[in-house]
Amino acid sequence: MTHTAILETERLILRPFELSDTESIYRNLASDPNVVRFMCYKVCESLEAAHKHIEQWLEYFNKLTPGSSWCLFSIVLKSGGELIGTIDFHENDREAHSAEIGYQLGKAWWGNGYATEALRAIINYCFENVDLNRLWADHDSRNIASGKVLRKAGMLYEGTARQCRVRKGHVADKVSYAILREDWR
């Protein structure tokens, strides 16, 4: 089941992601090598490339198993309406009521607590409105800031899978965090 909620925090609006977000995504995220450094995709060289990538991204979510829970949000500043990032969750194990969370934030907004604020809103939404028991996320071990965001949002360290993936030609460790409904309460 896709979710079309609009979530509000003190400083942010999280709204359903739309193809019309392409230009902002390109300008603030996809064209910045610092933002995509640890992501599985490469820097988009043009607005057209970003558009194609975003179409593929939306197609991926639309192909998830019928009945699965997922949502892809744009992170927008309340003041000024600027799109500064994206955050998503998608159910990866229906029987265990478990979902993975992912996010990215434009470099101009790093260090201001926006990612933590958005992540907390998603965690609250999933436990209050979606039949989920476990939320998890992982990050490249070189992306220390992402680990801080996950911890600040209440997620607990679960372990490190050593040299388990390749990101942009580098073998990387994957650091995993999770939060259970009982932890959240």
User: Can you list the strand order of the major beta sheet?
Assistant: 1-2-3-4-5-6-8-7
* Distance separating the two termini: 24 Å
Number of E-type strands = 8
Total helices: the number is: 6
Helix percentage: 25-40%
Q: Using the alpha-carbon principal axes, give the shape.
A: globular
Radius of gyration: 16 Å
Structural class: alpha+beta
- On the 0 to 100 scale, the average pLDDT is 88
Order of H and E elements: EEHHHEEEHEHEEH
Content of β-strand? 25-35%
- The unreliable regions are none
- What profile does the largest beta sheet have? 8 strands, mixed
What kind of assembly state do the chains in view correspond to? single chain
Structural description of this entry:
This protein has 185 residues and is α+β, with helices and mostly antiparallel strands. The chain is built from 6 helices and 8 strands. It has an 8-stranded mixed beta sheet with strand order 1-2-3-4-5-6-8-7, sandwiched between helices. Strand 5 (98-105), helix 4 (114-129) and strand 6 (134-140) form a beta-alpha-beta unit. Helix 1 (22-30) packs across helix 3 (47-62). It is globular, with a radius of gyration of 16 Å. The two termini are 24 Å apart. The relative contact order is 0.16. The mean pLDDT is 88.
Question: Which tags fit this structure?
Answer:
globular, 31% helix, 185 residues, alpha+beta, 6 helices, 8-stranded mixed sheet
Short description:
Helix content is 31%, strand content 35%. It has 185 residues and is an alpha+beta fold.
Topology (SSEs and partners):
Elements: E1 7-8, E2 12-16, H1 22-30, H2 33-36, H3 47-62, E3 70-77, E4 83-93, E5 98-105, H4 114-129, E6 134-140, H5 144-152, E7 156-167, E8 170-180, H6 181-184
Parallel strand pairs: 5-6
Antiparallel strand pairs: 1-2, 2-3, 3-4, 4-5, 6-8, 7-8
Helix pairs in contact: 1-3
